[in-house]
């Protein structure tokens, strides 16, 4: 953390960032259209990054209306103006729909107001309508200025001085209806709200044997409905992009009664608010309820979620996404030239990218056109690969084909959980079991990890056995840290006894080590020469071969939530610094990303060595901070970041050095990070990655079938991971090179590039290759983009 020194005073801009100097520039930031959780994090990042690079940043209150009205609607933002807003839903600068901005007169007035403040850089956070408006404004800008000069509203010099307007958009919308980004700001939080309601409803519905019809938002986009259906294992889902086939009324009722016959006590039907049939006629939740009551006589209730979905605190993902996008937006504005087209900053895989705004808006409108013209297949395709993938998996997992329609493979595939529990493991097992059964395999569950494997704790597991597993935390199969090395003989014996043809391992670093041991033992034990694949599941996110692992998003949300509460606990007690220890072993992912999401002042991690000078500099930073209106500090410390600078040590050091200025409290979060119900992301990630793993197993089994030889080559024993935009299977043996075995982390970790971002937003000077993307990318065919959602 050598670069963690307080921000340089005005005028002494660090040399390495000179090309990004915002000195003399003014940036206006506004939120427009419907609000979404995470907009505040985006505003905060724009303000802080703008001030950091030496620009002036102005809030434009009430969207375009404030721009048209001017006056007190345009106010310079200070560093402190955006403190304590990360955790707040909605937008503190207000959002509105503005008729006047649709007219040239309105835009003329808006231009006059911007010129008055010298604002020639605009950062718009909103949906496609808002971004379209911004682009029109940008194109007209020079003409508007000429007209204003002609009317005597501005000087001729002003026309030259402010000759062009730079525009950058960020998509804030809970609907995730914008082409070009994997996730819009607010979508993940909306999914959190929906899942909270569904989880609550499931408990009451279980008690009474009820059918629930749940209507979720999304206007003409079915993303929220589809992903919620996937995350809760809904019986049926209605989407605008993929209307049900004719005769759906009958099919749905058959499906519901079949599920009841399988002793399923509740049915969940999810309806997107814009759901339609193949004739473009709306399908309302009431209509569905009436149908179920009439045809089946089931006790059926309708719940329309409404604005609950827009409310509440933003999820960790939305805070991080919005912070990244906000910083990227400022960089894009600083790098823009008169020739640069307006762009949107968005997310592709785990990378920030800049895309041409006009093309993205066009593609977004094309989806609607396709639906209007009843070209539903096109609509699904245009929504993107991830949407299509979600839909296919939903269909596979929700509907069990009759046994006589499944071609038996005569293969047995076993599933095992290894290591510490991680939220989402059960969703992964459910998905594997169902996909495996649909592929004709006999599915076997191994209980209690490798220990149970050696002891023969193996049982066949069926379609209904895994019903309702998506929302359950921990590991229902049972999981242990024990490695297979000392039981190889016994495990080989069990494989033979149960005729296991392939193995799916769901777990963390122990699972990875276990897979390596099994790989190495294949020469000695022929039984081990079967396809084996591991999907990463650990809160620590430290498995080589994957950028993400199941469970870490849930843990991150727990950390973020707890930090919010802890910060709030000091609202009446001024001048307090909290030191919070997170899990992760040597991997600093949780501390770093938790720090970013919770707005920490520092996050100590093993990967970035620090010394007493850094600690001293942080104390000075906090001392300075106590002189401002923000008299609160938050410092995260990864549990193994340093052998000697322990949490107690840091607490004592801060307490001593901060005497008279601030006092300290420490919290060790511990196992609460491993528990809890899985987040929507972990449910879906677990579901999709595991389905992908089973698909691989089926292919490998077919490949080797009848060849009479065992699967000895390394590509039969793989880790399945996500890397940038791609899903990749890597032979476990190849990953050895990439692993720091002593510290149980991958040698390269993508998230380290976000370290400077947290420091900048906490007012530290940091050397920052700020931009993930650094340049405008052409809009990609949605079919070629988007991981991890696109598994
Ligand atoms: P949401 O996804 O929440 O609906 P949105 O940005 O699409 O967000 P809109 O109501 O379409 O919401 O647009 C918000 C505001 O942006 C409008 O009230 C208007 O001021 C401005 N705007 C939208 N479209 C245009 C346009 N074609 N020309 C000028 N201004 C526009």
From TrEMBL:
Which keywords label this protein? Acetylation, Allosteric enzyme, ATP-binding, Cytoplasm, Glycolysis, Glycoprotein, Kinase, Magnesium, Metal-binding, Nucleotide-binding, Phosphoprotein, Transferase
Q: What GO annotations for molecular function exist for this entry?
A: 6-phosphofructokinase activity; AMP binding; ATP binding; fructose-6-phosphate binding; identical protein binding; metal ion binding; monosaccharide binding; protein-containing complex binding
Q: Where in the cell is it found?
A: Cytoplasm
Top-level taxonomic group? Eukaryota
* The protein's annotated pathway: Carbohydrate degradation; glycolysis; D-glyceraldehyde 3-phosphate and glycerone phosphate from D-glucose: step 3/4
Q: Name the cofactor(s) required for activity, per the record.
A: Mg(2+)
An annotated GO cellular component of this protein is: 6-phosphofructokinase complex
Q: Which EC class is this protein assigned?
A: transferase
What's an example GO BP annotation here?
canonical glycolysis
Which residues participate directly in catalysis? 175
Return the annotated region ranges for N-terminal catalytic PFK domain 1. 1-399
Q: Which PANTHER family match?
A: ATP-DEPENDENT 6-PHOSPHOFRUCTOKINASE, PLATELET TYPE, PHOSPHOFRUCTOKINASE
Which taxonomic lineage is given here? Eukaryota, Metazoa, Chordata, Craniata, Vertebrata
* UniProt protein name: ATP-dependent 6-phosphofructokinase
Main location group: cytoplasm
Q: What does this protein do?
A: Catalyzes the phosphorylation of D-fructose 6-phosphate to fructose 1,6-bisphosphate by ATP, the first committing step of glycolysis.
Which residues take part in binding ATP?
A: 34, 97-98, 127-130
* Positions that bind beta-D-fructose 2,6-bisphosphate: 481, 538-542, 576, 583-585, 639, 665, 671-674, 744
Q: Region labeled C-terminal regulatory PFK domain 2 — which residues?
A: 412-791
Activity control mechanisms? Allosterically activated by ADP, AMP, or fructose 2,6-bisphosphate, and allosterically inhibited by ATP or citrate.
Q: EC number(s) in its UniProt entry?
A: 2.7.1.11
List residues binding Mg(2+): 128
């Amino acid at each position: 953390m050598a670069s963690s020194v307080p921000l340089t005073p005005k005028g002494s801009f660090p040399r390495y960032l000179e090309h990004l100097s915002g000195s003399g520039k003014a940036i206006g930031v506004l939120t427009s259209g419907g609000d979404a959780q995470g907009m505040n994090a985006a505003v905060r990042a724009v303000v802080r990054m703008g001030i950091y690079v030496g620009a002036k940043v102005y809030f434009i209150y009430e969207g375009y209306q404030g721009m048209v009205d001017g006056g007190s609607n345009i106010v310079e933002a200070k560093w402190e103006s955006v403190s304590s807003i990360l955790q707040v839903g909605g937008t503190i600068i207000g959002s509105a729909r503005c008729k006047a901005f649709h007219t040239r007169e309105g835009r003329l007035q808006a231009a006059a107001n911007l010129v008055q403040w010298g604002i020639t850089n605009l950062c718009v956070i909103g949906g496609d309508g808002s971004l379209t408006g911004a682009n029109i404004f940008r194109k007209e800008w020079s003409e508007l200025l000429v007209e204003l000069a002609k009317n005597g509203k501005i000087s001729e010099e002003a026309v030259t001085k402010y000759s062009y307007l730079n525009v950058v958009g960020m998509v804030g919308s809970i609907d995730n209806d914008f082409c070009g980004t994997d996730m819009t700001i607010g979508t993940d939080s909306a999914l959190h709200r929906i899942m909270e309601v569904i989880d609550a409803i499931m408990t009451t519905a279980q008690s009474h044997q009820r059918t629930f019809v749940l209507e979720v938002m999304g206007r003409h986009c079915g993303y929220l409905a589809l992903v919620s259906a996937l995350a809760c294992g809904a019986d049926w889902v209605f989407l605008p992009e993929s209307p049900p086939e004719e005769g759906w009324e009958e099919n749905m009722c058959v499906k519901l009664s079949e599920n009841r016959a399988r002793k399923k006590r509740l049915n969940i039907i999810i309806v997107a608010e814009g759901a339609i049939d193949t004739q473009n006629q709306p399908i309302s939740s009431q209509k569905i309820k009436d149908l179920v009551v009439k045809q089946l006589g089931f006790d059926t209730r309708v719940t329309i979620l409404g604005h609950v979905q827009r409310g509440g605190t933003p999820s960790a993902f939305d805070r991080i996404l919005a912070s990244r996008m906000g910083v990227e937006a400022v960089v894009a504005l600083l790098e823009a030239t008169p020739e640069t087209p307006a762009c949107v900053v968005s997310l592709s895989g785990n990378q920030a990218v800049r895309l041409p705004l006009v093309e993205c808006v066009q593609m977004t409108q094309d989806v609607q056109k396709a639906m209007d013209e009843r070209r539903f297949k096109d609509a699904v395709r245009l929504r993107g690969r991830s949407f299509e993938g979600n839909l296919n998996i939903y269909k596979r997992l929700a509907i069990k084909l009759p046994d006589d329609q499944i071609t038996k493979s005569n293969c047995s595939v076993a599933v095992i959980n290894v290591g510490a529990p991680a939220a989402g493991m059960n969703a992964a097992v459910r998905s594997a079991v169902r996909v495996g059964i649909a592929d004709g395999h006999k599915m076997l569950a191994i209980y209690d990890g490798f220990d149970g494997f050696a002891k023969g704790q193996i049982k066949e597991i069926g379609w209904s056995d895994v019903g309702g597993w998506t929302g359950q935390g921990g590991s229902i199969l049972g999981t242990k840290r024990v490695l297979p090395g000392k039981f190889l003989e016994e495990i080989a014996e069990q494989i033979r006894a149960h005729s296991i043809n392939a193995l799916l391992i769901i777990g963390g670093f122990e699972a990875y080590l276990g897979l390596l041991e099994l790989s190495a033992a294949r020469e000695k034990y022929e039984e081990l020469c079967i396809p084996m694949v591991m999907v990463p599941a650990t809160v620590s996110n430290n498995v080589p071969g994957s950028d993400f692992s199941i469970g870490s998003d849930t843990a991150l949300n727990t950390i973020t939530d707890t930090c919010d509460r802890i910060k709030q606990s000091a609202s009446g007690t001024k001048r307090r610094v909290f030191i919070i220890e997170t899990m992760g072993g040597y991997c600093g992912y949780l501390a770093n990303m938790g720090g970013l999401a919770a707005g920490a002042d520092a996050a100590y991690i093993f990967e970035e060595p620090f010394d007493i000078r850094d600690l001293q500099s942080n104390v000075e930073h906090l001392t300075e901070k106590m002189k401002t209106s923000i008299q609160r500090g938050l410092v995260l410390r990864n549990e193994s970041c340093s052998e000697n600078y322990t949490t107690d040590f840091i607490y004592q050091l801060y307490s001593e050095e901060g005497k008279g200025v601030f006092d300290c409290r420490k919290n060790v979060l511990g196992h609460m990070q491993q528990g809890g119900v899985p987040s929507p992301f972990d449910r879906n990630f677990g579901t999709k990655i595991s389905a992908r793993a089973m698909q691989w197993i089926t292919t490998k089994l077919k490949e080797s079938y009848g060849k009479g030889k065992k699967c000895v080559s390394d590509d039969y024993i793989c880790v399945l991971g996500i890397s940038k935009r791609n899903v990749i299977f890597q032979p476990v043996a190849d990953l050895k090179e990439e692993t720091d075995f002593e510290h149980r982390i991958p040698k390269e970790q993508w998230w380290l590039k976000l370290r400077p971002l947290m420091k900048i937003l906490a007012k530290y000077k940091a050397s920052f290759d700020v931009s993930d993307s650094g340049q405008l990318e052409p809009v990609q065919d949605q079919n070629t983009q988007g991981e991890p959602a696109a598994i």
